[in-house]
């Protein structure tokens, strides 16, 4: 189904063609003067330049050709050659009616669906998931949902950080902590079922890792020991593998729980370790292709290209200590994904600070023939900062754990709901559910309303307000429509044919029409904020409509039926937009 922008672009392009000018000049966009027009076309200016003609003359000709189109209430020439278009009420009503019938509420499917893999979240074993991974999870989840909604075949992969140096650190830290764990590590049989392992829980990992990481920074001998242990683990030492398995299990259970609480769920929970068995043959193959070089005891792959503005370091494939590195597992993962899912596009939703890492890995993958040039894409983002402008930390100065963040946000949501007198009629259980949804909406919308490249300040009070551009405001509007629909059902008012007459009805219908375009922009630019912006404007549009146009008490039955249908369609589209953002709405509040 085409939206009005699409249909009008076609009509205007045809008019340009009929005047012997390029159809590309007929592109229509939403008007930036809604008081004057719904849509505009500025193409006459460029067309005039190309044809060495007067732009106003061209625009006048196009206007002439479009006059009489039943979809247009008016078409006018303005300024140096702009074309202003106002859609007729009938065309708007028909379009709103079509959206009401459409299962995707106006979302346009992609022309050619692709297999897309979204690599996001990127949590690490033992390092508790912290706010640094929060944006990766929120944005990645949203992209996954957006791509899926538009018809692609999409898989989301957590790409668990479970194979690097931190595993060596943890193995020695655990051994130093408790001789029974040291014994498991050194046992040649690798006793994965040793009862002592049951005591190795999340609390211990959370304590051991920061300790070990801090010590490794200062103590070179400790660091070397951890490097050796990492290499031995990767070489398959049974006792280390037994410990490693326990670490990953404990971490994964906790992480999946926290992610789920945030409305983030992965299709694949593969990790760096998943591709370990591919690394040795991969290295042989890269050697055979002449792509590897020995450099100070390490194996590297050069990826710089002619014309590079600055020199990109090589990919470190095997360290001098004999370990596979972060980039090695990433390269092998490209290979693994090619054989398992063969994605046409891989989106790596990871912090902007890893841009170079990905550029190096991607180039290596293209050189090795593991992916088609351009099929790997890093979608970076800025940081979430504290009020001091630095990456967000807790008051104690540490990174905030995801779980603590969820607890803190939900506490705040409860408080706000009470203050606003919301959820008062809900049972204790339902109230908890509402508070959780408000918390998730606040966190996610605060993030997704910004272009992903922009950094933003963590300000829970602002995020949690029921007024302004916030997640809670959007939930509140959605719930208001739900309650209206319930009341309609109770009083026997049924939705019917949509008619557009009042200005607020026009505006709402125009907003409904704009969804497809917003989602397509978000898709093309890998930027969910276009959908967030649309959701906000739609909620505002509904609020204005509801204030200006009574629904259940409208004068005649046809208006009641029409306005109810507009409301129901708005709700459906709003819920789809929010779902793309990873936000769930409660039934009532
Ligand atoms: N675990 C990594 C980190 O914490 C992020 C992983 C991102 N994905 C990837 N394929 N490298 O920095």
Structural commentary:
The chain has helices spanning 4-18, 43-51, 55-66, 89-101, 131-149, 165-177, 179-186, 202-218, 220-234, 238-261, 276-288, 326-340, 355-368, 402-419, 428-448, 460-463, 471-491, 503-524, 529-548, 557-580, and strands at 29-30, 39-41, 72-78, 82-87, 115-120, 153-157, 293-295, 298-301, 315-318, 345-349, 376-379, 384-385, 456-457. The chain has 589 residues and is α/β, with parallel strands linked by helices. It has 4 domains: 4-87, Gyrase A, domain 2; 115-160 and 269-384, Rossmann fold, CATH 3.40.50; 165-261, no CATH class; 402-580, Isoleucyl-tRNA Synthetase, Domain 1. Helix 4 packs across helix 18 (503-524). Arginine (ARG) is lined by residues 119, 122, 124, 159, 161, 330, 348, 350.
Count the beta strands: 13
Which CATH top level class of the largest domain fits?
A: Mainly Alpha
Helix content: 40-55%
What is the name of the CATH topology of the largest domain?
Answer: Isoleucyl-tRNA Synthetase, Domain 1
Strand order of the largest sheet: 1-2-4-3
Q: Structural class, judged by helices and strands?
A: alpha/beta
- Please state roughly what percent of the residues sit in beta strands, choosing from under 5%, 5-15%, 15-25%, 25-35%, 35-45% or over 45%: 5-15%
Rounded to an integer, what's the Rg over CA atoms?
Answer: 28 Å
Straight-line distance between termini: 35 Å
